[in-house]
Amino acid sequence: MPILFVIFGVAALLFLIVRCRVNAFVSLVLVSFVVALALGIPADKIVKSIESGIGGTLGHIALIFGLGVMLGRLIADAGGAQRIAVTLIDKFGEKNVQWAVLVSSFIIGIALFFEVGVVLLIPIVVTMARQMKIPVMTLGVPMVAALITAHGFLPPHPGPTVVAGEYHADIGRVLVFGIVIAIPSVLLAGPVFTVLSKRIVPSAFEKIARAESVDGTSLRDLNDTPAFGISVLTAMLPVIMMSVAALVAIVRSSLGLSDNLAFTVIRFVGDASISMLVSLLFAAYTMGLKRNKSIDAIMSSCSGAVRDIAMMLLIIGGGGALKQVFIDGGVGTYLAHLFAGSSASPLLFAWTVAAILRIALGSATVAAISTVGLVLPMLTTQHVDLALVTLATGAGSATFSHVNDAGFWMVKESFGLTVKETFGTWSLLCAIVSVVGLVGVLVLERLIA
């Protein structure tokens, strides 16, 4: 019976968001109340459950998320992202320009939100395509493949960051495993899929980018941007710090070494919040003070970054409310009992639930967070690596973007595609990232078992 209420809740969300155009946060809160009543949660405890879900979710990610978007904004405002992309394209040469776009987009995608990455990279990709007289989608496919893979698998992006916290997974371990899985994902969904998509929707590769794709986003003079090395280091610093700490922890555990002061310091410095704070301070110097920017200008960039994500934070909190209602209403426990003694993999279950919710709701982040409430109780009865559960959820939430996803329309308009062409490129690309991610998770499970 609880499953019927979950289906009802998803259907209600779909109706409110897609049909009635109700704000996603308001829709999530309304549905959380209705589903809570349907699941039999006492009326006097519903508000507490919703508040607990919102507070618990935002309490964990607000610091990491906030510092992360400030870091990304400082890099973008200084021209660091442009420097990374243009330099790599120049170094790789015209023959390997696809790989240059793939690598630069992945590096930039770690530090910046998907939407911001698209806005920053579109003028670069369009300019290069025009200069080389090649279809813009030849470069566009690897660009969006790298950005969406980083968005779905790697902290400090909202989905993996929130889900890792809810599952109590080590975020550094999620990052290391996420990079391992991301590499084959971007290779297959980028350069390899470009060849396939030319056959599926050849019309998408016959058009030149429209002028409006780059309106208002003209490129800077490269002399007015930070050096390549410092731009890459600034973007990758949190990844380096968290990855080193995670790898040291893995080595220490495998060798059976006792804890000591050195390990404690590494663990502290590699904590996600500390890594992001140190990286932000480093960026404030390399992307700001070193370039003669005033403190006021730096803080203005940081404040603007936080303002831009205010609604996204509320939506994430709304997803946390629905997740908590699922848990308090016993849906997760019901599923745990249903699958008790079953050979069904919780990794496959997490991926499937997240994929269904993504296709239904459109938002990858909301789908991932809502999945937690259904999967979390199952983890108490089965031994499974929590970092892999996090990545399985992220992979599922990346699947088949379509018309109810803002990213679908952003890609369509940015590259001047028709709806059919967007399905044949962007939607299939997301499905490839999702499936390859799942396969990667299952392979890693075997290797580390």
The fraction of residues in strands falls at under 5%
* Chain-averaged pLDDT: 89
Poorly predicted spans: 211-217
- How many structural domains are formed by the residues? 1
What spatial form do the alpha-carbon principal axes imply?
A: globular
Describe this protein's structure.
This protein is an all-alpha fold and 449 residues long. The protein has one domain. The protein has 20 helices and no strands. The protein has helices at residues 2-19, 24-38, 43-78, 80-92, 97-111, 114-132, 136-153, 158-167, 171-200, 228-255, 261-269, 272-286, 295-308, 310-328, 331-338, 346-361, 364-375, 386-397, 406-415, 419-448. The model is unreliable at 211-217 (pLDDT under 50). Keywords: Cell membrane, Membrane, Transmembrane, Transmembrane helix, Transport. One of its GO terms (cellular component) is plasma membrane. It comes from Telmatospirillum siberiense. This is Gluconate permease. One of its GO terms (molecular function) is gluconate transmembrane transporter activity.
Short account of what is shown:
The protein is mainly alpha-helical and 449 residues long. It has 20 helices and no strands.
Task: Jot down its keywords.
single chain; 449 residues; mainly alpha; 20 helices; membrane
